[in-house]
Each structure stands twice: as C-alpha cells, then as structure tokens.
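Example record used in the benchmark description.
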Amino acid sequence: MKVRVLGCSGAIAAGCRTTSFLLDDDLLVDAGTGVGDLTLDELACIDHIVVSHSHLDHIVSIPLLADAVMKRRSAPITVYALQQTLDALRKHVLNGVIWPDFTRLPSVEHPALKFEAVSVGQQLEIAGKRVEVLPAEHTVPAVGYAVQGSAGWWVYTGDTGPNPALWPLLATRPVAMLVIETAFSDSEQELARISKHLSPSTLESELAGLRQDVPVYITHTKPGEMDCISEQTRALASGHQATHLEAGQHYEV
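Model output (structure tokens):
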C-alpha cells in the first residue's frame, strides 16, 4: 500500500499543509489543505474519504473536492465518519450558506458526496483495504484509523490526547507505521491538556504501551512549535525512534 503525505501540520504557514493522507490513489484519510496539491486528475480518482473528526483543518477540502470533480465522476465520493461528524458537516458546512449541499447536488439521484456513518471498533472494507475504526480522545467526537497493508498496519491516531484504550488494540497486531499527533511543545502542556492534544512528555507516556520496534511518525505539529517539539522528541526516554512527517513524503506499507 502506498501512503502519500499530503499534509501533516496542525495549522497553515508557508510550506505547511493541514492533515491529509492519500492511500494508493483512491482512499483519502482526512481532508486538510494538503489535498489542494493534487492535480485535477488525481482528485477525480478519490472514491473514499475517512474522516477522524469535524474540526476544520481535517475537513476543509471535502466541499472543495466535491465541487472540483463532480463533472468528472459517475459515482459519488463516500465519506466515512462518526455520525456526529457527518451531522456537523451537514449542519455547519454543506448547509447552503457556507457551501452547497453536495450530498444532494448536482441532483438527489446522483450526488457528488455520499455519507456513511461508522463507529469505534467497526471493521470496514474500503477500496479493497481492511480498515478499522480506532478510539480517540479529543474535544469533539473523534476516531483514528488502522489500515492493513502488505507489511502490516498503518495506524493513524487522529487528533487525540492521552488515549489508554488505543494501546491494547495495537499490541495484538503488527504495526508497520504509527502516525501519532504531537501538537504542542511541553511549554504549552496545559494548552495541550485542555485541547486534548499531545505534547512530547505525554507522547512519551503514550508510547510506553507500544513495542519499541514500531516506527513512529509525528504529525499535527503547530508550525511555530516545530523546532522546540523536534528537540524534545529527540530526547524521548521510551526508546522509540520518532520521525517528523513532511508534506510530499511517500511510504510503502
């Protein structure tokens, strides 16, 4: 399975794009600003989007993508998310005020988008891939995802604070790549706690539940915190090697 990092930042700035990963050519994991780097032909190949939660940096490209490709497609793009996330998209984005409702356009019979609710623990077959919905702990209802590749599982935590329910689930499977957020440095640890994000010290505590041979990749770092977080994560005492993701990277899982 090919993994393309479209965006992995917790905010925008020059060279920083918010969270989105393209698996092979047709499955999008979150839909941040990094989706905008795809060509129109690449956008038209996306058949499925799995969404971790309703915050803008993870959903901003969904309405724009639908608008861009609806004349190029004969079938709707399926958006998978918690029911609360889908409800938020309908109420606050695809409401005819912020953006047209592409679950009913260009027609009710042939919409550009189709919604499918998921729940924690559910296992799905999407684009020929086995996808499991993982628990997350955030300020709004949120999940992570695990996708099975030929070399093991690609695991994406989504936005989350300390998440004790996650680690027993990962202990029972071969994890080829863990993508985990670390939004704030330890100097902003109280803000991280309130907003239910991780900092390097809480990341270290979380990784105590993960085998040391699992490759760890850090995402969702705030642009202004990158240098500080990089220094602090290099000093992790857990024994894990943590690498910061960058937009434009490609991996095989």
